[in-house]
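Case study B.
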Amino acid sequence: MDQKIIFITILGMMVVTYLPRALPLLALAQRTLPELVIRWLSFIPAAVLSAMLVPILVLKEKSLDFSGDNIFLWAAIPTILVSWKMKSFVGAVIMGMGCVALGRYFFL
Amino acid sequence: MNAYNNQSTRPKSILASALHQVLPLMLGYIPVGFAYGVLAQKSGISNINTLLMSLLVYAGSAQLIAVGLFAALANPLTIVATTFIVNLRHVLMSAALAPYLGTWSKGKLALFSGQMTDETFALHATRFAKGELQAKEIFSINIIAHSTWVGSTALGLAASTLITDIRPIGLDFALPAMFIALLLGQIKSPLHLGVAIFAGIVSTGLFMLGWTQAHVLTATILAATLGLGGYLWTKKSSL
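Model:
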């Protein structure tokens, strides 16, 4: 693909990424939100992270895969344990990637 | 996550303190930015465009998706529209941070928004809830994170000729592992756990039904609403 077209596409991507990030803050920050809205918003981080994560772990193509071959699913268990017990972000990322690398090396 | 929970061990200068807090996030970014750099190079995007995308778009999952679309010679409008849908979730994050930044000027808010990713959002959401709203520190954290993203993209570009396949080193699990760590930091109550489980199940179900773009946004809105319902219900029954 022509690099000029790629560059223009990137500019388009920039605009459509920036607007959802900026508009709510600019529109909502100067006013006090009702308590119920704040309560609702407090659930957003947990909900959105889980909504992004779970399909990556349990789906292969478009169907559920709980088999031994689904290495992401099994690597998630030690990753969760490290993240939860050791409260370490870095440890979790390294543990996860290490398990996937080892799993592929030995089993697949 | 522990690194920024423990205030007492933080360095005194703002920059050192920001670096201390952002370090776990940097280590999460490096493998993902690296993977993006490698994949972009292999899909025929020039080095300068690859770096510009990290600088200007600054959205890991959308960039990784876009690389796949560029490689498949997708229509530019399709790429922009997909990016929009993938990043629409930031609407909710932006709205969630709004209550804390009521005293900030529009200019500051506009600058802050440009550097709000899933990860900086999760970091700031935790910090803001504890009343840590010092602008200098917030922007230091964001600039370090953004630079790390662009820098790790450059590393990926430099290394791409040496790496033929990213799978044997587990690079493709960097993003899910980061989501796991961020998610566990957000489980503040049994109700939050319930909301997360519900969101995960609904998102997966919608994806299987063919909602491969809107599943995250839809599941998030449903789960947060259910969480609010659960909160009101427990409050009512405890009175």
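Chain B has two domains: 2-186, 189-239. The remaining cases will be described in the next quarterly update.
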